[in-house]
Structures are given as structure tokens and as C-alpha cells.
Amino acid sequence: MANLGFPFDPDAVARPCSYADLPDLPAIQRLKSCRQWVVWRYEDRGKAKPTKVPYQPGTGFNASVSTPHHWGTYDQAVARAERGRFDGIGFVLSADDDLTGIDLDHCRDPNTGDLEPLAQRVADLAETYCEVTPSETGLRLIVEGKIASALKRDPVGVEMYGKGRYLTITGWHLAGTPTEIAPAPKTLEALREAVAAFDAAHAAKAAEEVPAIASSGPVATPLPIAEAGGSPFFRNVNSAALASLPSWVPAVFGAAARFHPGTGAFRVSSKSLGRNLEEDLSIAPNGIRDWGVGDMGDARQGARTPIDLVMEYGFEKEPRGAAVWLCQQMGKSPEAFGWEEGDRGGAEIAATLLARKVVEAEDGTLADAETGEVIETASSPSDDPLADDYAFGDISRPDGLIAEMTEWILATSRRPNRPLAMTAAIAVMCGICSRHMMGPTNSATHLYLVNLGATSVGKDRPFKAMDQILTAAGFGSIYQSAKFKSDTAIELALKSSITSVAGVDEIGSAIFAKMGGRRATTHESSISAVLRELWSVLPGDTWQTSSRAGERSEKLQSPAMTIMGASTLNEFYKSLTGASVDNGFLNRFTVIMAAPASEEQDEQLDRRIVPASITQKLAAILPRSGNIEALNALLGPSHPAEVLRIEWANPAVGERHLEFSRRITRWRDEDDNASPFLGRTAEMAVRLATVHAVGRAGRTALVTDRDYRWGASVALASARFMIEDASLRMSETDYQSNLKFVLAFLKQAGRAKRMEITRKVDGRWDPGTTDKILRSLAEGGQIGLVKGDSTKEGGRKPDIYVYLKEKRART
Predict the structure, then answer these.
(1) What is the pTM for the complete model shown?
(2) Which of the four, 295, 468, 551, 563, has the lowest number of CB atoms within 10 Å?
């Protein structure tokens, strides 16, 4: 039995790390030499046990393991941990190092130090450095050499990562193991054998159950996206359903399905599913994964399809019925997806697949372990323009200068809201880049940005922060708090500041309602035309103002207006008309959803002091930094002699953009409802990618694949949101608006009591109007009404349940 060289503390849940007093061992010295350190603390994230959340040593803000500038030196991590409320320090595994981290969980008795057999076998091999984890119930090994792909099996207690993770470092060396980091081939082999043995046992058990599954009739059997032979009906339905999640997910899970507009995904907690598991069910456009069972030997490692979910949690319990139900929810016939009489049911196909041993590649693709045949991918690039090819991860955590400004705004906010802060940072970057930089496709670099969210989410601080940052950098004159009442007001603003960053709070009522109102004057209704023209002006172009009585038109050299607006959802869409969609006005806006309101907190940094690192980097982006000519580049009457074009980092990134554009075009051609919102999605992606690249690398930037993924992800999130939301919220009349308000609520809730709708209305109209609206929708076949059972409601007058047609009410 291994003898640990420190006294035990059975009463301690986790012994605090001695940050500055790690043992002077070769392994620790090797890690100290790398600038890959973070700090961490335990936080309650609603799971069974606290989560170890990483933070940046330099700023104390949240850290990302995929963002190198978030990491610091060992000394920085120690200093931050000692002066902050942190529970430990950690080392990030990077793709650029030659290290692999291994965790053996729940393998050690914290009272005696006794190890489980597998952990004892690894300790006896003694190939590389090993230490005790903070919980004192596990071991961590650091191995020289990078594994090809991550491996995680919770039932076995084994995790192996080569990148994309950080390791909590305690320095509690396991006596009897080496003090240096070394290759560990026997250790890796032993752990892989243990995992393989578990997988084989579980697969054998699943194989025994296959005959029963195949012959027992309608059961909730997992169904693959593709079937071997036969028509592509099931594959097509699954692919279409992934691209249209809001049309069916709320109907299956009701209010338990939490929508995340930034990613277009839904998440259903394990608690809501009535199970005692740690992980949730993720339903995203690029695939569905039940993380609760993914690491527990599930035959498909948690991968699911829309048809699977309908059978397991919905109203249909056999594949054909589930697929047909999904077709109805998407408003199309089964024949539209390739249904032919005689298609195989699906349970047989599922049974065949369940008998296979499935492996998962790093990109999430599932394949047969023996043949290498792809069993399931998140989505097919040829079928889905929102495929995972463009996934960035958390789009609210970009890189470079945009990230730095975002973190500073958050740290100086009493109600920090990450998407709002990021949008302000993007607007600042656009203002600095827009008049003298263009993207790889000769695209402009100014944007119209809109944050949508509830009241009291912290919208004020980002507006003030934009002004502060630009002023501190010496360019305060380009920021204006704008409420453009007419096209003339916009032109006058550009004449006074030809580069403009306009902050518009309540943009719906401040601008859009004026230009779209029935009583709008000519100057108010022309706001749309002026803004549409200005969005398309490129660096180096001229733009001509209107000619009015007593005033000649004027040519402006490269006017560049960036807008950052904020509004509530209802106010934003209420202020827009169908004409705003048809004429391409709305698709020029990048919509970013705010996070829910957070609790008020103390500011972490002095909001009066903008960090010099931010202001200096902003100034360095200009063609002539440090003198009045730099300001003239933004504001001067003549455009700079040379416009800097930011190029693709390599041809592959350019090809990625071309393919993205082609897919968007196909999507527009095939979906008339989506088409009006997609007209500028590809152009928007390039603009976002360009300012992201410049924020990351300054004037020498090249647009990398990561830059483009971020830009495309933000643009797609905006398009998804408008496609799914605008059709229900936008209307031409107040009565249509009321109808669509009710439909939007039912779409989110799945079904609701009449009184719940009345409360949701909250004074918009009287209760009698609610009944009129419900009657109208019911007569039109859009909703159904079901009377509750009075015997179950204590003899009271039964409630009336309302649900969208083709969605069954659960009374």
C-alpha cells in the first residue's frame, strides 16, 4: 500500500493548497516554467457537488482554458490566490505542450490513504509524477506525451485529457512514485484496458437486451440519423428537426426546456427530468447529447436524435409515429422528407446499432469501433447550413482586445451582463476600425448591433463604458448617445463626426417606431433608407446626403456609423413592421440576446480608470498613432490615403467563408420564411471576424479559422433568433400583435391555463380581449382548448388549458 507523506485530516472536505510552498520537485519545476497557470474556487453551479471554476491570475475574471491570454505565470497565480478568495491554483493543458493529464476519481480513502485496485496498480507501476487531488479521494498523474483524443468513463473513474482542461495542482506527491514527469506507456495501457473491459461488459449486456427490444413493439428505442439501406426519411426528419428546435422542443418538455438564444440550443436539467443524475440534456442545432448517461456506459455515449427524444419524453412511442409527429410540428408532410410506404420502422435499425461498440472522435462523430463506419454525426453539412463546422463555443467569450474590454466592463458593472458587455466592446472595435480597414472580401467593418433582454439586466453600464473607453483612448468625439428622429438628424450627425459610434437605448421606440408608424413623416420614414445605405458604404467610398430646399447635397468621404442599441423583446418587435423585413432593414442588424438579470454586486475595479493596455492597443490600430493625424483618420474630411485590407490567414479560411456563403444561399432558396433574415449573414460573419482578428493582433492581423468561427457563430445566432422569433412577434396591427403575443407565449410554454395567459398579458388588454383572441385563434385552427377535470380540482370551476394545435395538452 502506498504511504503518503503527510498527516490525514478526516474532518476536512478539502485541504487548502499551500500556493507558495509547493515541493521543490522536478515535476513542479517543469510546470512552473510554463505560462499556463490559473486560479480556481469551489462554486455551487446546481450540481451534486461544487464545481471548480477557473479564474485569470492577472485580472481575477473568469478564465477560459482555450484562451491563452487568460493564463499567467505560477507567481501570478500564487499572488492572485493569496490575496483573493480562491481555493487553489491550476495548470492548463495546451495543445502546444507535450503533456497529458490523468484523473483517477473516487479511488482513495481519505482517512487511511488506501487505494482501489486500479489506482494501486497504477501507483505500483510508478512511471510518472502522481499527486493527491484536492478532495483527497483521487489521484492525478501528469504524463509526458500527448494522447490522440480525450477519454472519460465515470463508472471506471478514469479521465484522460491532452488539451482543453486545467489540472488542480496540490503538490501532495504520492510517495513511491517518480518526482518527475515522464512517459507512462504501461499506465496508459492499464487504464485503457480497464475502460475497454467496462465497455465490453456493458455492450454485452445491451446485446442481450436487443432481441427483446426488437420484438417488443412500440418502445423508446434510440434511432440513428441514418439507416443502412431504405429511404433517407428518418435521417431527413432528424436533420430538419435539429435545424428547427423551437418548433418541437417546448412541446415535448414544456417550461423545463431552457432556451439559450446565443447558441440556439435548449437545455433540460436532470432534475426536471425526474432523475438523480449530475449532468443535463443538451439539445443543440449541432446535435443532442444526454450528458447524464454519456459517461455511464451508454451504448451511444449519450448521443440522441430528435426522434429518440419524442419517443422517450413525448407523445409517440414508436419511430414512425415520432417522425410523423415531428413533421407536423415543423408544418410539413412526411412525404416532404422522403417518406415512402414500406419504409422500415426503425426499432430494427436501432437494435442493430446498439449491438455495436461505439467510439467517439474528438469532433463528436460516433463511429463503429471495428469498421470505422460513421454511425452518427451532429449534422450533415450538405443538409444543415448551421453545421458544427462553424462552432466557436461560448460566443460571449471572444479573444483579444474585445475580450479585454468585455472583462473590464463586467468588472466595473454593478449588474454585470456578459453579452451586453461584449456587444459594447464590439462596437468600440468597429468604431476604431471602420474608416480605414476592410475585411478579406473588401467588406466594411462597421455594424448595427442590438441587445435584446428584459428590463433591469444592466443595459446602462455598457453604453457609458463605450464612451469612457473611447474618451480615454483620445477618440471620445466619435461616441454619441443618439435618438435619431429623422433622416436629417442622421446626416447632421455624420457631418459633425464622419466616424460615429451611436449608443441608442430603447432603440425600438427611439428609432424604429418613428420610421414605421402610420403617421410617420417623410423624414421619419426615410430613416430606414438612410441606414440601409450607410450599412453598405465601404472604406474609400463616398456617400451623398439628401438635397433639400435651400441646401445642396453633400458628398461625404467614407462615412462609417456603428450602432449599438438595446431594447426589450416586445418593444423591439412591436416597433417593426413587415416592411422592415421585406426591404432588408432588419437583416442588417446583429441581434445579441442579453443574459438574465444578475444580482447587484460591488464593482471589482474602479470604473473611472480605463486600463492603459486597452487604450494603447486601440490607438495602435490607427494608421498614425499618437498624433492628431490619427484622429483625422477617423474624423477628417478626407479619407486616409490607404485603406488597410485584412487578409485571410490562409486559403482554407477563405474557402470556409465561400462554403458558408453557399450554404446560406441554399438555405435562403429552400426556406422562404428564413430567407428575408439571411440576406447579410455571410457579410456580417466577415465583418465580425475581421474586427475580432484586429482586436487579437492589431494592424498585422490575419483572419484565422478561429476568428471566422467566432464571426460566423455570432452571425448565425442572430439569424436563428430572428427567424424563430420575428414571425411570431412582428405584425402590422395591434390586434395581430396581440394574437402573435399569445402564440409566442404558447410556443415557449407548450401549453398553459387561460389564467396564466391573462397574467402574462399583465394589463396589455382587458380579460375580455383575451377571450376574444383565444376564440379567434381556436376558430382559425391555430390553438386547441381543453377543459380541465373538475374532480381533480376540488370541485372548483375547471381550468381551461390552451395549447398550440398539433401539440397535445397534458392535463
Answers:
(1) 0.49
(2) 551
